[in-house]
Fold this protein.
Amino acid sequence: MNLADKISTLRILLIPVFVSLLCYFNHQHLHLRYVVIGVFAFAILTDFFDGLVARIKKEKSEIGKIIDPLADKFLLLTAFISLYALRLPLPLKFKLPLEVVLVVVSRDFIILLGVIILHFLKIEIFISPSVWGKLTTFFQMFTILGILVDFSFVPLIWTIAIIFTLISGIDYFVRGIKAINGRVSSPNF
């Protein structure tokens, strides 16, 4: 396992730390807000640095192609679900709406289902994120950070995140259909 893969693994290991701290963050433990923000911000930075390290050291690996996007998905899905599930006791100005969580979770579920179908149909795929996928990840991360920091414009951020989530979901769906129809031998996921 190279350094970039270890950084991606660290992001996965930060997820239970983030959730645990989020569970204890309440009106009696307001100081934990900064720790929760710090852990999530650090996890976001690991997403940037694992790719940077892989490019600089020319250490792109097969495991890295899998673990990096999975780490992103696990982090974001866990953050969205946790912030929604814990919305009432959390002393935050903005509460994450169910609609936002449903769009994020549904998109990832549909993509996962599509990958499984392509695998069973023995259609080879290369998992590399599209521009829409990267924008989606950025705005989803920014949404979580915005909620934790209480940015006054966080509803605008999560609206943009929903738009990019839907666009990227449609993009991946179309690529999957093209792969099934044989128009693309290996779509870029």
